[in-house]
């Protein structure tokens, strides 16, 4: 099995807040993240499969990039994530983002019979979330 990764980038802002909790409790849980702020996110999408003899590829990375652009980046780049449809009723933490991106990409990649292996999001250089379904 071979694993190939496409890396993409987007910038977005968010506020971490749980509307069901009091202001005080939100401040306690989220600290500085309970204020509006932005991130330069990096997204790594890894798919896996067998080498195709005809092309020498596992999957066309240009196509993978296009799918990620169309289905994810175009929806979140330069957006306030709290107001983006796909995060409705969700706290836009990196964890929740990884899960939601998985739910969007999995059926798209299924169409091409390629297996989604992992979604890795770098919120900062030091804060990274990986989801494997
Ligand atoms: Ni943040």
Q: Could you explain how this protein is built, in words?
A:
The chain is an alpha+beta fold and 133 residues long. The protein has a single domain, classed as 6-pyruvoyl tetrahydropterin synthase/QueD (Tetrahydropterin Synthase, Chain A), CATH 3.30.479. The chain contains 3 helices and 5 strands. A 5-stranded mixed β-sheet has the order 3-1-2-4-5. The longest helix has 18 residues, at 94-111. It is elongated, with a radius of gyration of 16 Å. The mean pLDDT is 97. The structure holds nickel (II) ion. Nickel (II) ion is lined by residues 14, 33, 37, 39.
CATH superfamily, please? 6-pyruvoyl tetrahydropterin synthase/QueD
Q: Strand-residue fraction? A: 25-35%
The helix/strand series, from N terminus to C terminus, equals EHEHEHEE
- The strand count comes to 5
Termini separation (Å)?
Answer: 18 Å
Number of domains: 1
Structural class: alpha+beta
Share of helix, binned: 25-40%
- Find the CATH topology: Tetrahydropterin Synthase, Chain A
Q: Would you state the CATH class?
A: Alpha Beta
The CATH architecture name reads 2-Layer Sandwich
Provide the spatial order of strands within the biggest beta sheet. 3-1-2-4-5
Low-confidence stretches: none
The largest sheet, given as strand count, sense and whether it forms a barrel, is: 5 strands, mixed
Q: Write down the overall geometry.
A: elongated
Q: Quaternary arrangement of the chains shown?
A: single chain
